[in-house]
């Protein structure tokens, strides 16, 4: 576990036997305090810390979860596709649609991409899957956290990234991708999982997009009321460190990286192609991850505060990437 950097102590060197009268020392202290506070305020004004609307993000999570099971190929999945696109009216939206050939047959897969152009040359990509687990389709599994929270946080990111029509955001372009077919249809393996992102990474490799990506981050299972984001050892160290320093600036570092280990998720097809990538995921959902991929993955296990912690941290990471 990484520890917060020790704060540098500011020492004032006054002579042991003070030649300064006490009133002058007091005046100096007052002056230093006021100057310090003014400088801090000026810095904060220059770069206000991002703050997502967590109430709205959580409302999206509720609505998405209320569709019920949203596995590839079912009617709720189609309804959710429409719901996502309806929330992106006026945005630049693109589809990456294809047919996946799987051990359970052929499925229509659709990654939905919203592009928010920036003034800087380069792209930051944020991904989050919207499909729910297919093997659990007959047990009323609704994936509030696994599928629901990722869909919702990206919708809230879209609200935060949107600028006036015809204008560009001040920084890199940011592309949000609601990925499809993240889940396995039978049993997780290299060929049975990540259908959407394997397709997208290959496409972006061919058309040259991958070379423009400065950083790629996956949001997954970030709604757990007891939020502890794992440090994924498949991720790119400098990007993981940047996310941690964003969390530190917001005072959220205790929710990050107490545990670490390799995670297989939507970032993998990009990691394999050398794209700087990070998976922002809490894989400790309930004691011993007991709610993960069970009918217990319901909205009552989640909290708006967790979405705020993950959301603000990643919005600040985007801001810090913009400034690099
Ligand atoms: Zn899952």
Give the helices and strands, then pairings.
Elements: H1 22-46, H2 54-66, H3 75-86, E1 92-102, E2 105-116, E3 118-129, H4 144-161, E4 169-179, H5 195-206, E5 213-220, E6 229-232, H6 237-250, E7 256-261, H7 268-271, E8 277-281, H8 304-322
Parallel strand pairs: 3-4, 3-5, 5-8, 6-7
Antiparallel strand pairs: 1-2, 2-4
Helix pairs in contact: 2-4, 2-8, 6-8
The protein binds zinc ion.
Task: Write a structural description.
This protein has 324 residues and is α/β, with parallel strands linked by helices. 36% of the residues lie in helices and 21% in strands. The chain has helices at residues 22-46, 54-66, 75-86, 144-161, 195-206, 237-250, 268-271, 304-322; strands at residues 92-102, 105-116, 118-129, 169-179, 213-220, 229-232, 256-261, 277-281. The strands form 2 sheets. Strands 1-2-4-3-5-8 form a 6-stranded mixed β-sheet, with helices on both faces. It has a two-stranded parallel ribbon with strand order 6-7. α6 (237-250) links the parallel β6 and β7 (256-261). α2 (54-66) crosses α8 (304-322). The radius of gyration is 22 Å and the shape is globular. It binds zinc ion.
Features:
324 residues; alpha/beta; 6-stranded mixed beta sheet; 21% strand; globular
Any idea of the CATH class? Alpha Beta
Instruction: Give the low-confidence spans.
Output: 1-19, 40-45
**Secondary-structure element order, N to C:** HHHEEEHEHEEHEHEH
Q: Could you tell me the CATH topology label.
A: Aminopeptidase
CATH hierarchy: architecture:
3-Layer(aba) Sandwich
Helix content: 25-40%
Ends apart, CA distance between termini: 25 Å
Supply the number of helical segments: 8
Give the strand line-up of the largest sheet.
1-2-4-3-5-8
Ligand set? zinc ion
What class do helices, strands and sheet pairing give? alpha/beta
Give the radius of gyration: 22 Å
Number of DSSP E strands: 8
Looking at CATH, the homologous superfamily is: Zn peptidases
Largest sheet: 6 strands, mixed
How many domain units? 1
